[in-house]
Design a protein that fits this description.
The chain is mainly alpha-helical and 78 residues long. It is built from four helices and no strands. Helix 1 crosses helix 2.
C-alpha cells in the first residue's frame, strides 16, 4: 500500500487532528486516513457510472430467478 507524507502541517490543524483522533479513539494516522477517505468519496455521477457498468455486466448472467418457489420446495421436503 502506498504511503503519503504531508509536510508543513500548520500547528492548529495538527492539534485539531490530534484532538479529533483522541475523541474517536484512533491514532493520528488512522484519523488522518479517515478524514481523507471521507473527503474523497465518489460523486453521484461517478457512482451512477459504476452502477450502470455493474448492471450491464450482470445482464450477462441472464434473468435472475425468484428463489421463493425453491425455498418453499426445500422447506416442504422436511
Amino acid at each position: 500500500m502506498p504511503d503519503l507524507l504531508v509536510r508543513n502541517v500548520p500547528a492548529p490543524v495538527m492539534e485539531r487532528l490530534k484532538a479529533q483522533a483522541e475523541r474517536n479513539g484512533r491514532s493520528v494516522q488512522k484519523e488522518a486516513l479517515a478524514v481523507l477517505e471521507s473527503g474523497t468519496r465518489l460523486t453521484m455521477k461517478e457512482w451512477l457510472k459504476l452502477a450502470d457498468a455493474s448492471r450491464e455486466a450482470s445482464q450477462e448472467w441472464g434473468p435472475l430467478v425468484d428463489s421463493t418457489e425453491l425455498i418453499r420446495e426445500d422447506r416442504d421436503k422436511r
